[in-house]
Amino acid sequence: MTSRLTLFKDTYIYYLKNYYRSRSFYLMFSMAIVVSCLLTYLSFKYLNDLNRFAQSVNFVMSGTSAKEKILGYLWSFVLSSLPAFAAVFFGSPSISSEIETKTALHVFTLPIPRIILLLGKFFSSVTVTSIIVITYTLFEAAVFQYIFNTLIIQLLYSFLLTLLFVLSFSAMTFLISSLFNRNTYAYITALIIYLLVFSAATIMIELLYSVTPYYLLNNAASITSRVYIDIYFGISTNGSNPNPASYHLIILCSLVMFLYFIVSLGITAVIFERKEVK
Q1: 115-126: per-residue pLDDT in tens?
Q2: How far apart are CA 140 and CA 213, in angstroms?
Q3: What predicted TM-score, i.e. pTM, was given to this entire model?
Q4: 175 falls within a domain
């Protein structure tokens, strides 16, 4: 057991350094800083216009509480997309790159169980994605502290749910990466499935059955912003609810994301164990 933990630690640190030194990390980190600064500017500039925004989405709220909720929703709405792109950058080439560049010929022959290699690379990918999420969240927390002199509990909920989303979507990108031998195919497939397939399926299900399919990852991930305001711009919803999403909905979406994480990583482990390099 000690030997396996040591192998995992060494593998994790090795891949973490690779991710940390990659252009993808600096690109996503810079994007997080730029987006954070832009939202900070917009938060101060348009703070007094938030009540007008509330009216435009069919509900009226007033006072500091309304501004906190709506501002938190806007910050978290962006946050639900940022880790998705980061996970694609770090997760999609995770296995396919080893095959495409033939480095798997050397890596797979190392006296390290493949499951250790997979977990070490997976959690290092999750770590660098989480660093980007944490950077963005620190900006959000600073803005809330300065403007409202308080940190509302929904910010913590949103942050923890976002980390769960990072786990689930990273596992999904690793699964997609294990199915291809070229990085480009893995990148494109991951983006198409998350941005197009899930969205198209959501629209069709809402049109046909007038329900929101929370079993699709994109809808489950929307809970990161709906912990502030239970608002949805979908086809089947008329108006909006100014109250935060219920605990029942939070638990449901959390369970869906956790299942994506477990199932995707489990299938990836099976495929990775049987992967051959030709």
Answers
A1: 888 899 999 999
A2: 29
A3: 0.86
A4: yes
